[in-house]
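Q: What would this chain look like folded?
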Amino acid sequence: MITKLDGMPEGVVGFQATGEIAAVDYRRTVIPALTEAARAGDVRFLLVVPSFDGMSGGALWEDLKVGVEHLRAWKRIALVTDIEWMTHATAFFGWMSPGEVKVFPLAQCAEATEWVAG
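A: My prediction, written as structure tokens:
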């Protein structure tokens, strides 16, 4: 499930992902917020992942489409998680992501928010 985070700084879209991610999470929550952010300017994206139980095939497809559809708008992406394999995967594949990407532990969510807004 993906939920939008309230109280983000101006220009930042923030989400929390927990459990299993489904395509409907992207269509209802992520895509509308990213589309609005891209229209307004740069996309600064904060994703907090305290737990993860996988993604449906449809969710994976939606994730890929989101990155490509707004390719030029991505400015910064902050991943906030203590899930070790996500940290390693982001370090390994982060260069393929549009914009700057940085990983923060859950205890540094405030610092991640500050960085992504900068």
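The first strand starts at residue 2 and ends at 4.
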